[in-house]
Amino acid sequence: MIQMLVDKGADVHVRMSNGDSVLHVAIHHYTRSRNLLEIVKILVDSGCDPAVCNSDGRTPLHIAAIKGNVSLVKYLL
């Protein structure tokens, strides 16, 4: 689904009012998804910046670490 949206021109650079990027939102809301790493890889390959900070100064890596997603933390490092 994510790949299809990206292929159709979805804006992967959009930000929420709190500064969260698409990566922040994906990691925050799909933590328990078996496909989260694949989703994050698609988003990064499509131009999402994994080092972008939200208004709290947190990057997607911070969110992944808080959520305890070790494989995602390793990927983002």
Q: What this model shows, in words?
A:
- α2 (22-29) packs parallel to α4 and α4 (60-67) packs antiparallel against α5.
- The model has no long low-confidence stretch (mean pLDDT 92).
- The protein has five helices and no strands.
- It is mostly helical and 77 residues long.
- The chain starts with a helix and ends with a helix.
- The protein has one domain (2-76): Serine Threonine Protein Phosphatase 5, Tetratricopeptide repeat (Alpha Horseshoe), CATH 1.25.40.
- It has helices at 2-7, 22-29, 36-45, 60-67, 70-76.
Quick description:
About 50% of the residues lie in helices and about 0% in strands.
Evaluate the radius of gyration: 11 Å
Spell the H/E element sequence: HHHHH
CATH-level-4 superfamily name: Ankyrin repeat-containing domain
Give start-end ranges of low-pLDDT stretches: none
| DSSP summary: helix tally | 5
What percentage of residues falls in helices of 4 or more residues? 40-55%
* Rough outline: globular
Gap from first CA to last CA: 25 Å
Report the sheet with the most strands, covering strand number, pairing sense and barrel closure: none
Total tally of structural domains:
1
Percent in strands: under 5%
- CATH architecture assignment name: Alpha Horseshoe
- Based on secondary structure, the structural category is mainly alpha
> What is the β-strand count?
0
Mean pLDDT: 92
CATH class: Mainly Alpha
By CATH, the topology is Serine Threonine Protein Phosphatase 5, Tetratricopeptide repeat
